[in-house]
Amino acid sequence: MKIRGFAAAVALAGLLLPACAEPVDGTWSFETPEDVAASPDWRPVDPERLFIFDTNKGRILIEAFPEVAPNHVAHFAAITRSGDYDGTSFHRVIDDFMAQGGDIFALKGRESGQPSVKGEFTFRRDVEKMPLEATIGPEDSAKHGYYHGVPIQTQPSFFAEMSVDGLVESSIPHCASIVSTARTSDPDSANGQFFLMRGYSPHLDRLYSSWGRVIEGQDVVMSIKTGSEQNNGSVRDPDILESARIAADLPEAERPKAYVLRTDTDTFRAALEAKGEVNICELSPVPAVILE
Q1: Residue of 24, 29, 43, 26 lying closest to 133 (CA atoms)
Q2: Which segments constitute the PPIase cyclophilin-type domain (predicted)?
Q3: What whole-number distance in Å separates Cα of residue 238 and Cα of residue 91?
Q4: Domains (ranges, CATH) in the chain?
Q5: Is 24:13 a contact under the CB 8 Å cutoff?
Q6: Cis-peptide, bond into residue 33, ω within 30° of zero
Q7: Whether 52 contacts 246, CB under 8 Å
Q8: Distance CA 263, CA 140 (A)
Q9: Average pLDDT over residues 256-279
């Protein structure tokens, strides 16, 4: 079994932007897969949440977050398991924006067969059961933080005391590496098409349903062939999503095993605190280690 991703050494300094940021304490060196699994600073990814997109440019691994958008995660899992994504193209790709795929109709002359999904642009978060593990600014008043490595934007936690249901409105912002959902002008029209963020696009926040995060293969996302600016990103001779699977459906010996750096540790919190008041989408994505 091989270690991929941040295999030889993972430094927490890699979380920080700009690239000239000073290193901080927190470096991990792994020589064997057992070293990763035994490390208290890394959490395993549930294979039911791990989407495997194999493209002609390379592999993309996505961790889904049903806590945020349960209907969208179930919807995309059903389409993935149907095999309908195999052979579809990344038909609309724009630099510094996103790569859109999943147009089943263009390939097969029919839609996914799944009903459209109502928008899950935000979710109501229980600050006790789903606390932010690390925050930008004081925990009680923070508007940005991390949950299991995914960036979260939110009403401050103290709003829970004033809300009728005791919850706060939260969402996943459209940072680079986030996976979200294409739709028409109808907010409840999402179906087969998804998009992978290649840059930060705040104008999409709370208007499109984010449901996952690329944990490996963002370089592949960035390499997907871009389209014509004159045709709104439409791509001639596009790159292909050759197969889409969920790790849990593979024999255990064939599954990639993913570990994500925990964001609930003192080391991570200290590194984040050192950055001060910064937009969470200006930080590098939380790293992962892949065992295959």
Answers
A1: 43
A2: 52-267
A3: 6
A4: 3-291 (2.40.100.10)
A5: yes
A6: no
A7: yes
A8: 17
A9: 92
Token representation of residue 149: 């490595």
DSSP of 55-98, one letter per residue? ETTEEEEEEE-TTT-HHHHHHHHHHHHHTTTTTEE--EEETTTE
DSSP state of 187: T
Q: What is the spatial distance between Cα 61 and Cα 38, in angstroms, rounded to a whole number?
A: 22
For residue 34, give Cα distances in angstroms to 40, 104, 107.
Answer: 12, 40, 42
Question: How many C-beta neighbours within 10 Å does residue 210 have?
Answer: 27
Provide the token pair at 63. Answer: 């961790």
Q: What is the tens place of the pLDDT at every residue in 98-151?
A: 999 999 999 999 989 999 999 999 999 999 999 999 999 999 999 999 999 999
In this structure, what is the dihedral angle of CA atoms 212, 244, 48, 222, given to the nearest 10 degrees?
-30
Residue 103 carries which DSSP code?
Answer: -
What's the pTM value of the predicted model, to 2 decimals? 0.92
Show the beta-strand stretches assigned E in 19-57: 27-29, 42-44, 50-55
The Cα–Cα gap between 74 and 202 comes to: 25
CA 178 to chain centroid: 4
Q: Show the CA angle centred on residue 47, arms to residues 73 and 113, nearest 5°.
A: 35
Both tokens of 165, joined, read 């249901």
